[in-house]
Amino acid sequence: MSESHANAPQKVIFEVLRYIPGVDAKPRMQSYEVPAPKGLTVLDGLLWIKENLDPTLSWRSSCRMGVCGSCAMFINGLPRLACANQVAHLHSDKIIIKPLPNYAIIRDLVPDLEPFFAKHAAIKPFLIRKNIEELDNPTGEFFQSKEELVNYIQFAYCIKCGACLSACPTVATDDAYLGPQALAQAWRYIADARDEGAAEREEEIFSAHGAFRCHFAGACSEVCPKGVDPAFAIQLMKQFMFKKKLGGCKEQHGSELAPPVENWVPKKEYPKAPEHSL
């Protein structure tokens, strides 16, 4: 075997769902042969197909580094980020790619996320305070201790990729169910010591399609690329509701403004930068 042939990249088959509503009678699978050098991600493979084989292939992507969540797809049977999964790590010579389940398809691998973001907006994902004037014209920062930060920081890592809803069996059977993403974010704000909006969110999160529709399958947490664990957040939400109904929760009062820092002096002097070497 020649050296050039021995160093040639391995090839894999990308089997991709293609579908244009109103044009195609039904979705179909299309196969592409893609060179797979070391380090090739699924997103890289799709880009290679678009640039070299089929410019009509459609999907979403943006940051290419696992931050924006745009490229979530159903890859070899699991919701994954295409940019964060290397072909070699899938241990298969065939990569089967479909759009996320539980969403309508706009085109090819592009899911319709409008209902997803509508549910996110419904739980009011922002700090709510009784003193609106302080929010509109802030005079300082609301105090938060390190211990208070720990109560919710895990759930603040959500990148809104939609993978959790695509794995949720309840979402598959109830279009109106808020879903793990929205419920986890509702808890992220309720657990925030600076927030006072739990009562304003109750109508949504404790409705017939809210937290108690969760059957705790745990699939949402299993597929989350950021370790948010929305299933855990929903259980904390249920616990919160029980305690509140039984009178075990105090009325929510947001933290006070942090005292101003005056005449701050660093604890130690920072070293000066070295002289320029040129």
Structural class: alpha+beta
What is the count of helical runs?
11
CATH architecture classification name of the largest domain: Orthogonal Bundle
Cα Rg: 24 Å
**Into which percentage range does the β-strand content fall?**
5-15%
Determine the CATH topology of the largest domain. Fumarate Reductase Iron-sulfur Protein, Chain B, domain 2
Count the strands?
7
Shape: globular
Main sheet attributes: strand count, strand direction, barrel closure: 5 strands, mixed
Helix content: 25-40%
How far apart are the first and last residues' alpha carbons, in Å? 51 Å
N to C succession of SSEs: HEEHEEEEEHHHHHHHHH
User: At the fourth CATH level, what is the homologous superfamily of the largest domain?
Assistant: Alpha-helical ferredoxin
Q: Order of strands across the biggest sheet?
A: 2-1-5-3-4
Q: Unreliable segments (pLDDT under 50, ≥5 consecutive)?
A: none
Q: What is the number of domains?
A: 2
- Averaged pLDDT, please? 92
CATH class of the largest domain: Mainly Alpha
